[in-house]
Amino acid sequence: MYQTTDTIVTIASGPGGAIGIIRISGKDALKISSKFLSPNNFINNPKNSYFLLKITDPKTQKIIDKAIVVIYLSPKSYTGQDMIEIFCHNSPYIIKKTLEIALENGARQAQPGEFTFRAYINGKIDLIQAEAINQLIKAETEKQHSIAIKQAEGSLSKKLFEIKNQIISLLSETEVRIDDSYEEIDEINQDSFKNSLDSVIESIKKLKDTYHSYSYIRDGIKICICGAPNSGKSTLLNTLIGYERIITSPIPGTTRDVIEVILDIKGFKMIFYDTAGIRKTEDPIEIEGIKKTFSTIENSDIILLLKDPLQTEREYLEIKEKVMEKVKKEAKIIEIITKSDILKEKNKSNFLYISSISGENLDKLLSMITDLKEKITDDIYDEIIVSERHYQCLLKSYNELIKIKNIPFNNYELIAEHLKNALNELEAIVGKTLSEDILKNIFSKFCVGK
Ligand SMILES: Nc1nc2c(ncn2[C@@H]2O[C@H](COP(=O)(O)OP(=O)(O)O)[C@@H](O)[C@H]2O)c(=O)[nH]1
Ligand SMILES: [Mg+2]
What we know:
There is one protein chain. This protein has helices at residues 29-34, 92-104, 114-121, 127-138, 142-152, 155-175, 190-219, 233-241, 284-299, 313-326, 362-377, 388-404, 412-430, 436-443; strands spanning 8-11, 19-25, 37-38, 49-56, 63-72, 83-89, 108-109, 221-227, 259-265, 268-274, 302-307, 332-337, 352-353. By secondary structure, the chain is of the alpha/beta class. It has 3 domains: 8-126, Gyrase A, domain 2 (2-Layer Sandwich); 129-215 and 387-430, tRNA modification GTPase MnmE domain 2 (Four Helix Bundle (Hemerythrin (Met), subunit A)); 220-377, Rossmann fold (3-Layer(aba) Sandwich). Strands 3-4-5-6-2-1-7 form a 7-stranded mixed sheet. It has a 6-stranded mixed sheet with strand order 9-10-8-11-12-13, with helices on both faces. α4 (127-138) runs antiparallel to α5. Guanosine-5'-diphosphate (GDP) is lined by residues 229-235, 248-250, 254-255, 277, 338-339, 341-342, 355-357.
């Protein structure tokens, strides 16, 4: 596990950009930095403040840079320890040299996640918030970001705190009746106990089930464009992207591999797959490509099934049948007739007529996709489970509570035991009862400097 009593340093900024940041945290943060920051009278009368100071190499007395230095005194810092942040010019030489000098003067290079780990150990944040900070850094879309920021602000911790309190009140009702000295207390009111228990179980269930919806936010909605060769699949995707990302041509079998394009549509991550056209062929590469088409269909949430206007009804239905064999049962299908610009009659009501050339109905297609997305993700709440670890804890807690339903009402010992187990699982989410291995695993996923 990380040591927390020494003083750590690292580069907190990335390459590029005008300002570089060095972060130092630990009980000797001020002492160490006073050796290479001047003037160093901040050490005599330390207070939360900022200064314009010179970074000097103590060995050579050479000036390295002038920097803004922020001092945060314990406990008023990110880690809860004394901290220094040095904002210097972001030259690779200045940054590396300053880090080196800090290391030579008694600091240790921080490992990934060590700053946040110290914040957690010192009670500045709970584990959910720590994990949310990591997700905040990694968020790709508005929705991912808004969930992470709410959790970093403590919304999920608050929700869990409420649930825990409900369990604690059930537990106290039960425990008070285990102890012999309380014999004069009445039996538990079965109805009200049962109602409270059901309500806790319901809250946990609701929360735990949000984990599945989150996979759509994290991984995105998968949209597969498929159909016969030449039906206009690649042209459609190019049009949606807005440039010629994929080769298109009148020669059938142009696309032989699955091409993945990630688009952010209204703050939501959507992954479009352009696939090889489905047909009988002897070409071994195309056969491989078509196999991939079907495995993409299997994994997609929305299928855009394209029909070329020149394709016969029979040819289309043959392909449709093969596609329907593969789609997952909750997937949604949009049937599309392409190249509507060359058509006079558009009377098949179960199809959406589109043209990548004239742009007809492309807006309509996108809004159909977003509507389906709403259906797929409509059970996403504010408090949402985004981590497998949290999900497992909730599941175990839920299972403990469910067991109580089959226990005779006067078996207080056994009821109390399951309530305690359920409570422990919830505590593990915020990090109260976790082993070092699990903690290490959580924090090691951070980047250095966080
Ligand atoms: N007129 C017209 N031609 C199109 C349209 N979309 C695609 N095409 C043409 O149809 C041919 C096959 O298109 P492509 O996107 O390569 O089909 P894919 O094999 O399904 O990927 C190309 O010559 C395209 O220019 C459209 O909306 N209108
Ligand atoms: Mg193609």
